[in-house]
Amino acid sequence: MDKRFIFNLITFLVTIFASVQADNQFYYLKKCYKSDPEVNECLKRSSNYLIANMRQGIPELNMYEPEPIIIDEIGIALGNGPDGYRASFRNIKAYGVSNLTITAVRSDIESNQFQFTFYIPHISARALYESTGVLILVQATGGGSYWGEYEGVKAKVYIKAKPVDYQGKTFLSLQQIKMDFSVKDIKMGVENVHNGNSVIQAALNLFINSNAQDLLKEMKPDLKKKLLMIMKNFVENLFSNIPYNEWISE
Ligand SMILES: *[C@@H]1O[C@H](CO)[C@@H](O)[C@H](O)[C@H]1NC(C)=O
């Protein structure tokens, strides 16, 4: 082979490679097919592939740094009456959610219903809290910082969508989103408690840790509402940027 031929061949291959790259606008997804008998497995792989790309950032979707997740505020109330304990947690930063793995997908492609089960090995949360009232005989009015370590987080998210046509292409539009989650092991506590002393802080921490699952249950309604809002924005961003047949094709 002469040098000229090799040079032409290389130029040709480089050109092809460059055009494939440019064509693949949705490089962060793997396309699934309706006729695939294992379509749920495919959707699972595709979702995990998307998540792996999100960790690196996807500028095309305006996704840059996936960590932390920030929640402005959630509140809990235990007991009623004037001395009932109320706490609000502000400026919550949660680290570790981007380490999630989708472990199962169920779908009804025809009616655009999907259920994702996912697993997050570990979430660390930090927040500021303020509280009023009495908690187990301790006057717990005050504030400070809150920390939580959540081990083995499992969640299910249900999505119902509707196809809509826009500029000659079909997109999905989110109709409904629901979620639930559980945490296998929780460790949490408060620090830098102001208007308090070390005895009160120790009493609070003892109570918090022996009742972590019950406290989470109390936080859940508010937490779910905030998480659903975050997920709704996330899903709507994906749906409005990615045509339906890039996800699932005939
Ligand atoms: C994600 O998981 C890896 C491996 O377990 C760990 O080193 C890393 O700290 C985790 N990331 C976050 C933000 O928790």
Automatic annotation (TrEMBL):
UniProt xrefs under PANTHER family: PROTEIN TAKEOUT-LIKE PROTEIN
Protein name (record): Protein takeout
Coiled-coil ranges per UniProt: none
Keyword Signal: yes
Gene3D superfamilies for this protein: Haemolymph juvenile hormone binding protein
Residues annotated as signal peptide: 1-22
Keywords assigned: Signal
Pfam families according to UniProt: JHBP (PF06585)
